[in-house]
Amino acid sequence: MSLHGKSFIAGVPVVSGTDTFYAFDPRTGEKLEPAFGESRSEDVNAALQSAEAAFEVFRKTSATERATFLERIAEEILALGDPLLQRASAESGLPQDRLIGERGRTVGQLRLFAEVLREGSWCDARIDVALPERTPLPRPDLRRMLLPLGPVTVFGASNFPLAFSVAGGDTASALAAGCPVVVKGHPAHPGTSEWVAGAVNRAAAACGLPAGVFSLLQGSRPEFAIALVKHPLTQAVGFTGSHRGGRALLEAANSRPQPIPVFAEMSSLNPIFLLPGALRQKSQEIAAGLKVSVTAGVGQFCTKPGLVFGIGGPDWDAFTEAFQSAIRSVAPGTMLHRGIREQYCQSAARTSQTPGVALLAQSDSEAEETSTQARPLAWKTSAQTFFGQPTLQEEIFGPATVLIEACDLGELRLAASKLSGQLTATVHGTPEDLADAGPLLEALERVAGRLILNGFPTGVEVSPAMHHGGPYPATTDSRFTAVGTAAIQRWARPVCFQNFPETALPVELRNGNPAGLMRTVNGKLTRDALGQ
Amino acid sequence: MSLHGKSFIAGVPVVSGTDTFYAFDPRTGEKLEPAFGESRSEDVNAALQSAEAAFEVFRKTSATERATFLERIAEEILALGDPLLQRASAESGLPQDRLIGERGRTVGQLRLFAEVLREGSWCDARIDVALPERTPLPRPDLRRMLLPLGPVTVFGASNFPLAFSVAGGDTASALAAGCPVVVKGHPAHPGTSEWVAGAVNRAAAACGLPAGVFSLLQGSRPEFAIALVKHPLTQAVGFTGSHRGGRALLEAANSRPQPIPVFAEMSSLNPIFLLPGALRQKSQEIAAGLKVSVTAGVGQFCTKPGLVFGIGGPDWDAFTEAFQSAIRSVAPGTMLHRGIREQYCQSAARTSQTPGVALLAQSDSEAEETSTQARPLAWKTSAQTFFGQPTLQEEIFGPATVLIEACDLGELRLAASKLSGQLTATVHGTPEDLADAGPLLEALERVAGRLILNGFPTGVEVSPAMHHGGPYPATTDSRFTAVGTAAIQRWARPVCFQNFPETALPVELRNGNPAGLMRTVNGKLTRDALGQ
Asked: What is the pTM of this model?
């Protein structure tokens, strides 16, 4: 297996310019061969023209055909074997074991969306039969279902080089919905991207789909990202990354003559609230769990807890002390790339310099810059300081968190109500704690997409009931999830067919209901065929 | 029944400034008493503060309580009796009969959303039970449902002073979802708005709800509309009106520190395609139906057909001639207000002056300006002219349409592919026509929210399978409908509860499923309780 360093436009390796960039092994700083060509605006146009042409075929595929395609992508990714994991590890610094797990998740997501398609009810089919005799006006036959939006642009994320990248959740859900995908590969792992794109290309060919159903454009320049969003054929955007990046894409999308939806999952502090009884009963256990949640994967998860609130007193002090020791014991780890490490160092310096914020703990070992390491860190401050320092609500991406001491439950509630939008919010409490925690939980329900009791926010299940989203700035659209089966709904819109003969209707809306979909027929949910 | 000319903030009549405006009877130009106070920024703030406070209570109401509230609003509107219809008629120029029908629709919508709430499955409850023994990692208990976004601002539309105004579809669906509503009343019918707002206030009081669940702000100034959208407590916006107005609100929403969803239903030409067999078999019938669809309600429906395409030849000529006579026979009608009439005259003049466009027909009677009349109009042109003149894709709101002659089916398809986003697209064809019309229908499926065969687009059913939406500029968000039961989905977002004890969960997510909701349990749709 070799790498050619080119983009893939509709299955064809393409390099249109002479500018290149390289991946680097963050563990060593070593430059990794080969050079990758920077995509240019003509590549953006070619990829989207191919996607648009492919859409004319792809939108007419059956749910089963698309399921087979997704399953084939999963197989082709597995067939890439160990070299994929080795390259991904070299490009991301992530250990092989983690990448084995992430590959499992990537393959699992593809298969899960295949299941969603084979079951089929996701398309929300609704039928109101004609009532020709109704007075004063007859009712026409109305049949509605979700249909794909068109070509989608997906931005690969650096922190999941497999599961949120070229064939990750955004791509899997968009293809499931029937949308061709143009991926902008993340410049930190172009080799991983190229191989996974090859796997998608082979799956498309094996399934007899037009090659334009998928393209991968490699590149490192912000203006190229904006060009993808602004291209008139792009109909929606999926992104996981920084607040600044997501907001820029949102603004580009909204300034188009035809604005398009942007699903950007951006920034979350994932606050944790420790209630008095929980602190009394299990401060050591919580400190140990928090250590893992803050530092696992070198803190590079979007659900890493960055704010931990509790009420001052001996139990809080015991917890703080235990957490202090725990953080000291965690060795620095290699971050994904130098840019993320620089950002981490800047955010840490900003926090350390914030008036009223004190360093609580740092890893006993110093971080080595040559191996792109981040030193685990924890700070402590008061709720009053938190209220007065808005920068404490800026995400620190990496193995760091801030402990915040409140004077009473009222101040905890006030802190909850002052939070900006979050992916998650967590409460630790005994049954007695929770009996008094209604207002706190209600405040958190306003700001978060997922509420967790007596657990930790990291570890996002890929399942029907998962919601990985939340109010701005956690995401740009709180109504949709980036993880779990509901993610498919981002890429579709309803279309209603009025007075269509059976044969001109999509199969999902025909009387016979051959796939046994759950449909809303005359207002009632049923799997029955019509006329039975 | 009298009018006080004040806004209603949380049930209390308020007038904060001294500036006023009046409604006018478009049939006579007569100024209608009383003067209405112009809302100011402090009123916007007071209304949204009240809405935010009310939300803390309203979000915790049961679906049944909200259903009762909606049903009570319907009763209170009916209890306003004939004076409401008389005032609405004076303020809109719409005849009493039409307003009786519209009141029925308004009341019917409120009751339909009450039914949706009583059935309850709209909240898309999903449960993945805990799998504590799963390896390598256990699965936590995950339960997700849709919860209300928060205070919603609704802009009343002038063309449906009841059904798309103070207690219209946007308000009904937002209240159903659990969102307090602040309505900006349309300045053309402030008296109608005041009375309907009083009905909503009485219903809220009768149901023991906080008065802040609903406010009506009266005002005529654009900056006041923008202030509503920009207020930080506004969490979503519903609007029906012009493209310019909707785009301004969208841009205001997107420029907020926290962008919010805007559901603006703006502008649609609702193209009709007449295929050769249909023209041959029923050109007279189509001409008669088209006349009604273009001129009913003085052409002031968002689904009025503004472009009619066909292939040149004797059948097209026969149709054109029949339509010409039909338009000549329609008397001018009174438009909703002077601003709409001015806009109609300007759009008509622009169309008449477009090179290659010829006037085909006009009403035999001239329109009287004193009674705010619009003269029915039709133009004809060629597909080639249509391709070269983008202004022909601008909506003409009023009783007018443009017939466009193509040379063959290929040109029809090309025209379909060049259309901007539409609420509807219609095809008339015999079974033989339709056998060849696949590519045309596919092109139309890309641009429209509703496709109609052998019918007319006006007359929008309020039902589960209706989709009243479409790609931009028909709406700002093609994924949602403004009419029908699915409209409730605009005002809600998913929240996932992880590891919550039964008693801390919303009732919709508890094991017992007392309301018998259709839920997704471990990936399967079922009405069963858990553990059965």
From this structure: 0.97
